[in-house]
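queue> pop job 88
queue> type: inverse folding (structure -> sequence)
queue> payload:
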């Protein structure tokens, strides 16, 4: 049996940490769709596109071939054959991804890749529109969120651990700006699917969130198996 778990939510809610852990517990593959949008954004930055010009983004994005490989359980994003994982987690790439992911042509280029991955194996896939658009039939849908301040604090800790200076107020402003863009874009806006379970991680530990999602998954799968009997 192939099972799909969709985890959506805003930037910094802890989606990737949680999704990776849930995938490990269930021996599923973790699919990070944000990394695919980031790889596309990296390509657009390298091509020096004007981020204010949707027609230019639409034209230039045709030159990016994005594919995925798995090595020791880790997702490797290939951009025109180059492993670009090391370049994806910067604020510059994240901000560009937030702009370019609103472009319908960019989304179209990544949609097939995401659906094919979920069809071929059991996955925990995280993103913004997985439960609503990419995998509307997912077995479990989670909408994971946390307050903007909590998310900014988490992002700052992450940066400080890497020895990068962090301006908490600026990070919070960037997060709110990104939320606004992600939630208000015309195509596949960030929103909770009607049948998704809302999990607010502001006052929860990672372990608690993982446990909660595993519980939801087990109840769902056991119930559907019972129904099938
Ligand atoms: O989750 P992340 O920060 O790596 O995502 C980077 C950007 O990509 C984010 O601003 C929203 C966008 N994104 C999207 O539009 N749809 C997805 N499924 C995943 C990410």
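queue> result:
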């Amino acid at each position: 049996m192939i099972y799909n778990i969709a985890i959506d939510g805003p930037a910094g809610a802890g989606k990737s940490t949680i999704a990776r852990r849930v995938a490990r517990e269930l021996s599923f593959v973790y699919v990070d769709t944000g990394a695919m949008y980031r790889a596309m954004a990296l390509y657009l930055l390298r091509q020096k596109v004007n981020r204010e010009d949707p027609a230019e983004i639409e034209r230039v994005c045709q030159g990016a071939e994005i594919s995925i490989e798995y090595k020791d359980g880790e997702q490797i994003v290939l951009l025109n054959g180059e492993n670009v994982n090391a370049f994806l987690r910067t604020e510059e790439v994240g901000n560009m991804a937030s702009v370019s992911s609103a472009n319908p042509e960019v989304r179209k280029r990544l949609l097939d890749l995401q659906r094919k991955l979920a069809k071929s194996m059991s996955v925990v896939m995280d993103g913004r529109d997985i439960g609503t658009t990419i995998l509307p039939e997912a077995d479990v849908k989670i909408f994971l969120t946390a307050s903007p301040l909590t998310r900014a604090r988490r992002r700052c800790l992450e940066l400080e651990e890497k020895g990068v200076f962090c301006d908490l107020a600026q990070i919070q402003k960037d997060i709110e700006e990104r939320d606004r863009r992600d939630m208000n874009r015309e195509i596949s806006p960030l929103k909770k699917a009607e049948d998704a379970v809302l999990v607010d991680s502001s006052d929860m530990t990672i372990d608690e969130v993982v446990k909660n999602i595993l519980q939801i998954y087990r109840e769902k799968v056991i119930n559907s198996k019972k129904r099938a009997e």
